[in-house]
Amino acid sequence: MEYMWQRLLYKQGNWQMIQVQQMKLLLPACVEGLWRETALNHVTSSGIGGEGFGATREMSLRKLIWVVTRIQVQVQRYNKWGDEIEVDTWVDAAGKNGMRRDWIIRDHYTKEIITRATSTWVIMNRQTRRLSKIPEEVKQELLPFYLNRLAVPTEETDCEKIDKLTDETAQIRILSGLAPRWNDMDANQHVNNVKYIGWILESVPIEVLEHYNMTSMTLEFRRECTQSNLLESMTCPTARVMESNNNSKNRKPDMQYTHLLRLQQDKADVVRARTEWNFKQKHQ
User: Fold this and answer.
1) Nearest to 95, CA basis, from 129, 134, 37
2) Which residue(s) pair with 263 in the sheet?
3) Model pTM score
4) Residues tagged active-site
5) Preceding peptide of 14 cis, ω within 30°
6) Residue 24 confidence (pLDDT) above 50
7) What is the tens place of the pLDDT at every residue in 217-255?
8) Neighbours of 282 (CB within 10 A)
């Protein structure tokens, strides 16, 4: 791999895509793993990295960690086995008390954009597990690295509320008994986002996975999940297709689903999600 640090934007490449599913297309969960790696490398290369998962020095002194509240992904096209890609990532402020991290995945040779993603992060106290305001010292660490640039254009940002699924929801699919393992946990003792995406897709009908490509995914994180928890994955087709959608072809998706990961014991929400899908073309 080649690593290149620029003051505001971190570029990492090139990967040869070898983690693929049966149809020789890159799994969304694998893409999320690439984002996580480039984000950590960005913090380390910036010179402000502290202890823990992407924390700065001032955050480490105050026992603070980052937690993600929302992720939106747009898939322009799927990677194929053997493709070489590169990833750009950068950060900016998100309101008064959050941070936005964006990513763009490109073809290494043609520079064609393959996937865009944006995410919102807030700070949590590692010991009390309560959300915290961003201390002024941390803001001053981050400020020189903020880049006023959007991976997902404002008009395509998914700000719509994700509906809560219940047992009474029509046409629902529920998969129970999902158990986090030790290697599913990150450095902050959270279940990692790659695992969440995998669990969400577990309850998607197999005929959808076989015949459709996911064009967008929005994840809304509601609470922590630890290794001792058992979860349920729920999926339900959305009754309507959004008027303004987020897929790369600027047309209504062929299918849309609402998802929920919840604790099996008390049914508390862990992650809400929305996905959009288009029918696979024959050459895919």
Assistant:
1) 134
2) 231
3) 0.84
4) 188, 190, 225
5) yes
6) no
7) 999 999 988 888 999 999 999 865 444 444 444 557 899
8) 5
Token digits of residue 55: 């924390």
d(CA 82, CA 20): 10
Pick the closest to residue 34 from 78, 86, 74 (CA basis). Answer: 86
Distance (Å) of CA 218 to CA 10, 162, 266, 283: 24, 9, 24, 27
Cα–Cα distance measured from residue 180 to residue 228, given in angstroms and rounded to the nearest whole number? 7
Question: Half-sphere exposure (CA, 13 Å, Cβ side) for 2?
Answer: 8
Please give the sequence-ordered ranges of beta strands (E in DSSP) within the chain, or none if there are none: 2-5, 10-16, 64-75, 84-93, 99-107, 113-125, 131-132, 173-178, 212-221, 231-237, 255-263, 269-279
- Determine the Cα–Cα distance for residues 184 and 257; give it in Å rounded to an integer: 25
CB 277 within 8 A of CB 200: no
